[in-house]
């Protein structure tokens, strides 16, 4: 990755500014009142957490959480496994290469909006195997299985990844429950959609980049699922397109915190009360960066539509129902192929006002 390969170079209007605007006001929410409560905990403090989460989802689509209940040791093991894995030779890493039939594993040529990302990744699913639709064609009901692939090296890689993923999954259910409460719904209202979840965890490695003003680690995009729960190291690079003025602002890393963002599916469920916000990851010329996002995705058979409890005559549904599994199959295809079109967006299901 030494030369300026044009595959990585962004159109001038999408290139990052190297001067950083730090997002000082992105909410940091302390989850201890809900994590430590045994049911008879301080319900006043828990209600305040729910309100803070609702406000952050509305104003930012992004927030951070601390005192979230994930043991630091498990997080550190996952980061160590990730660093050890990516430090291996390309030949070793490519033994578990992801391709169109094997959706999980190692990959270093991902595209975001047809431009190559300056990164390498390792993906694995929470459910192994995960059932998905074979094609984006709406009439094709055929399903296939995606299986995880695990490398032989480093030796404790799989164990570290799986143990960590179970913790992030727990946190994701908890956050989904808090978000449901913030929408005035029963806590477990959304949980059933995740029984056969298509969630996956991704280890991201962004090597130092000699031309950080021309390329991005991950190009601007919105996450499609319900929620994303991101752990990052202390290097920093995640930028959010601030809702209030459209400015790209950098999230300052908070040690041991998680960065949470609302995805497109939550935007539709909430009938746009909460919106999925564009974000991107910058790279820099000196330091490598590691991050571990968890993408909390519903089951392939989920029909995503505004929740009935949130719509009435004053608030008619803003989206037509769509199939999560077909949306996913469509997205998957565009990750591998350079196309002349942008990939499928939920705006295609938007009902005009
Ligand atoms: O690396 C990060 O901080 C975020 C990456 C991201 O947004 C993604 O992979 O969807
Ligand atoms: Fe993302």
UniProtKB/TrEMBL annotation:
Domain of life: Eukaryota
Extent of the signal sequence: none
Keyword line: Iron, Metal-binding, Oxidoreductase
Pfam families in alphabetical order: 2OG-FeII_Oxy, DIOX_N
Keyword Repeat in annotation: no
Record's keyword annotation contains Cytoplasm: no
A GO molecular function held by the record: oxidoreductase activity
Domain Fe2OG dioxygenase: start-end pairs: 197-298
Gene3D superfamilies documented for this protein: B-lactam Antibiotic, Isopenicillin N Synthase, Chain
SUPFAM superfamilies the record matches: Clavaminate synthase-like
Family designation: Belongs to the iron/ascorbate-dependent oxidoreductase family.
Protein name: Protein DMR6-LIKE OXYGENASE 2
Source organism per UniProt: Ziziphus jujuba
């Amino acid at each position: 990755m030494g030369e300026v390969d044009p595959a990585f170079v962004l159109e001038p209007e999408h290139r990052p500014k190297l001067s950083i605007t730090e997002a000082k006001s992105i909410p940091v929410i302390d989850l201890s009142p809900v994590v430590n409560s045994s049911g008879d905990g301080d319900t006043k403090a828990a209600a305040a957490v729910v309100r803070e989460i609702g406000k952050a989802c509305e104003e930012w689509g992004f927030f951070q959480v601390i005192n979230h209940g994930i043991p630091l040791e498990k997080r550190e093991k996952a980061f160590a496994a990730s660093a050890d894995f990516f430090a291996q030779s390309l030949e070793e890493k490519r033994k578990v290469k992801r391709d169109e039939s094997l959706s999980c594993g190692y990959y270093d040529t991902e595209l975001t909006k047809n431009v190559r990302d300056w990164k390498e990744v390792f993906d694995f699913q929470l459910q192994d195997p995960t059932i998905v639709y074979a094609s984006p064609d709406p009439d094709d009901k055929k399903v296939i299985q995606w299986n995880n692939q695990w490398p032989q090296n480093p030796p404790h890689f799989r164990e570290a990844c799986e143990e960590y993923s179970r913790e992030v999954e727990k946190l994701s259910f908890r956050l989904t429950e808090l978000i449901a409460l913030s929408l005035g719904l029963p806590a477990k209202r959304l949980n059933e959609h995740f029984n056969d979840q298509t969630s996956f965890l991704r280890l991201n490695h962004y090597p130092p980049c000699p031309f950080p003003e021309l390329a991005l680690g991950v190009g601007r995009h919105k996450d499609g699922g319900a929620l994303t729960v991101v752990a990052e190291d202390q290097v920093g690079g995640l930028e959010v397109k601030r809702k209030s003025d459209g400015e790209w602002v950098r999230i300052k890393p908070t040690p041991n915190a998680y960065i949470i963002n609302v995805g497109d599916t939550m935007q539709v469920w909430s009938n746009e009360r909460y919106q999925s916000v564009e974000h991107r990851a910058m790279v820099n010329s000196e330091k490598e960066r590691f991050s571990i996002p968890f993408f909390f995705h519903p089951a392939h058979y989920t029909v995503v539509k505004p929740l009935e409890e949130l719509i009435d005559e004053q608030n008619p549904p803003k989206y037509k129902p769509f199939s999560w599994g077909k949306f996913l199959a469509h997205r998957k295809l565009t990750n591998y192929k350079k196309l002349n079109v942008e990939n499928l967006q939920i705006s295609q299901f938007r009902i005009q006002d």
